[in-house]
Amino acid sequence: MAFNFETEKLKNELKKIKPKRVLVQLPEGVKQNSFELLEFFKELKIEVVFSGETCWGGCSVAVEEAKSVKADLIVHFGHSEFMKIDFPVIYIPIKDELDLEPLLKKSLNELKSFKSLGLSCSVQHIQDLKNIVTFYENNGKKVIVSKKKGNVSSEGQIVGCQYFGLKEIQNKVECFIVVGNNFHSLGAALAVNKPVFLIDVYNNEVKNMNEVKDKILKQRILSVEKFKESKKIGIIIGVKQGQQFGSYKLIKEKLEKSGKQVVLITMNEFSPDKLINFYNIDAFVELACPRIAIDDFARYRKPIITFKEALVVLGEESWDDLIKEGLL
């Protein structure tokens, strides 16, 4: 995999800002490149500190870490801007420089029964968007690119928790193509009611996400049903600025009215080890990133549901309507 860290672009930005100390955030799979980037900053005579915390998206910007080491700037690699931050940040998406044509050709067999395609890419492949559209159009397909809605930075971009741009066009297409990884394509499959195909650049395959979606839906139904039987509930409030979904006050009040005991818990980063200490709690509602409850189902021994799923438990939403509208 050839990563482009856009060092020339970064160098120009750094020369304008003239920081003395920088905090660098790297996605998990790119932390191995820290020494390479260290040399880059050394050449510019900039002191650099690397964040060792997880960095799953643009929703997780390490402002408090930067302040604690007295950095004047955050350089956030791997994602685009997701929200406004009251701290100087440079976002470097890290472009994947790949020849996508062999995979696109492979996808034609899966897509032969579809004439109109919705297209979305992870930020690493936004630069390939025009070429992808041209490829499918040359092969007789109509292509509509997902809209710039919610917190995405550009048309055609997909992020892990918001799929408004895909929902905007779903009545105009027969299926969706996601160029990127399993994380984004699974989210898309859970958000829209059309087939979703992953152009998996990391495993060199084309994948129909319907089977994975069906498995996840069964897990979510199981979690909701177990939650309904629970008496003692923990509501987990995410403290990361970009990972706050739903009103804990609303959920707490309604759960208590339904006869459940409720405690409020703040948490920055989830893990089974942290939750196991709350051993007397039967189930949890998490109001941080909704993908934690969905993707990490097997990691947790007790049911964890999302804000939307809690509304189903409380009778504010029906499960059928939630599936129709999308879990995300």
Description:
- By secondary structure, the chain is an alpha/beta fold.
- The protein has three domains: 3-94, Diphthamide synthesis DPH1/DPH2 domain 1 (Rossmann fold, 3-Layer(aba) Sandwich), CATH 3.40.50; 101-208, Rossmann fold (3-Layer(aba) Sandwich), CATH 3.40.50.11850; 213-325, Diphthamide synthesis DPH1/DPH2 domain 3 (Rossmann fold).
- Helices cover 35% and strands 20% of the residues.
- It has a five-stranded mixed β-sheet, sandwiched between helices. It has a four-stranded parallel β-sheet with strand order 3-2-4-5.
- α9 links the parallel β12 (232-238) and β13 (261-267).
- α8 packs across α12 (307-313).
- The mean pLDDT is 94.
Layout of secondary structure:
Elements: E1 3-4, H1 7-17, E2 21-25, H2 34-43, E3 47-50, H3 63-68, E4 73-77, E5 89-92, E6 95-96, H4 101-110, E7 116-121, H5 129-138, E8 142-145, H6 164-167, E9 175-180, H7 182-191, E10 196-200, E11 205-208, H8 210-229, E12 232-238, H9 248-257, E13 261-267, H10 272-276, E14 283-286, H11 290-295, E15 304-305, H12 307-313, H13 319-325
Parallel strand pairs: 2-3, 2-4, 4-5, 7-8, 7-9, 9-10, 12-13, 12-14, 14-15
Antiparallel strand pairs: 1-6, 10-11
